[in-house]
Amino acid sequence: MTKIKYSYAGSTSYSSVDEAVKNNFQGYTKVDKYKSTSTFVNGLANKQIGIAEGKIYIQKTGKYAICLRSGRGNNTLYLAVNNKSKLAQVLSLNSDHGGFVIEGENVVNWDLNAGDYLYFKEITLSKHYADAFTELGMACLDDESPKMVTVPTNILCTNDMLMPSKDFTAKEIFKHVYSEQYLIDSTSSSEHKLVSVNIDSWDNTSSAENIFDKDTTNFYHSKKNNFVSESNPFILIADMQKASRYNSIKITSRTSGQYNLPVTFKLYGSLDCQNWSLLGDFVNLNMTGNSVSASFNETEFQYYKLYVTDTKSQSSPNKYVTIASIDFTDTFSGAEISPYDLGYYKEKSSNQTFKRQTAEGSYGAVIKGNGIVKFNFTGTGLMLLTLQDDPCKIMVMVDNKQTELTLTQSSERQFAYVLSGLKNGNHKVYIKVLSGKLCVDSVLVKG
Fold first, then answer.
1. Residue 17 dihedral angles phi and psi, to the nearest 5°
2. If you count Cβ atoms within 10 Å of the first and of the last residue's Cβ in the chain, which end, N or C, has fewer?
3. Domains in the chain, CATH or no CATH each
């Protein structure tokens, strides 16, 4: 499925989704498009419109309740069965509906047959909030105890099979490449411990310990009249309590009042709190609501140090520091490669085989077998995606470095193997099935 975010500036904005659709979303200053495996759209700030669209594979015949969980905006839902061109608006909501429910004004009922594709489009227009959101849920009302849940990824078709006019590599598949992003790991300051901070807090209710508790309404605020600058930096050191690899940071401030967000700072990482490496030197970052985010090269560290020399607020010129939480994530972004573009082999005098098997994965099928997979790629990282209907054990060798893995059964796509930090260039991959059968969904390659 696809997600789109339109951003507007100045006097250009829309008062409703209907108005934006009528004008084909014209006037935006920026548009972001990307593939996703979730119907959840959030983090939409004022003057932003978010769209999530795709299709859902219906596994059994029955009456279904479709729920739009939403808030802080004008939220609409369009649906159609088996024909995307027939998408029609079925919900338009201006009030908040924060949870999934079986019935209510944010629910519609549809009779669907096994094998149907339910096309959907969610559109959310933020109403002067920093975090408008929407998410699609569904429940089969014919079940004994119907439960409304977010659309499961195993029936959410992540890629449409498109048929160009020429240039194909096999009878079953046509060449196409998608960009995908996967969350590998994440951590929040509520899991960390404060080591030190060099500027006292405003008062006893706004200490630096607030950054590391589990209450996100608490926050740290620096001491009155102690403004940060290059000559008076704010320095915070924290311990994540275990070493992990991350490549992005998000700093969140309080939800009301002046944000005082760090926008110019150096970020350092360390494994021992003694030897520090510079992860990123960020200058005048843009605020998104009450938070700022930045990316850096994937690095393993346990301790981090923030060295802040400038902050930004909605209107106040005072250079205080206010922080409610600090989050790190490790994401893998790359070009998705079809399983048909890989090489499949068997050892001599063996019963090893590979066959195409229909599956609700990235390309409508997986390649399943118990032999050897070989291919080359150019880039700095690799992710193997599988859709295992049974467990198996494999050996993966990249540039002569071997790793053995046991893959569990899963009805959803899973990243079976991830490797980052390679030198940008050509790499050889050799995968041998040691037991069971491997179900190859696709491969992601990081440039």
1. -65, -40
2. C
3. 2-158 (2.60.120.1560), 187-333 (2.60.120.260), 338-446 (2.60.120.260)
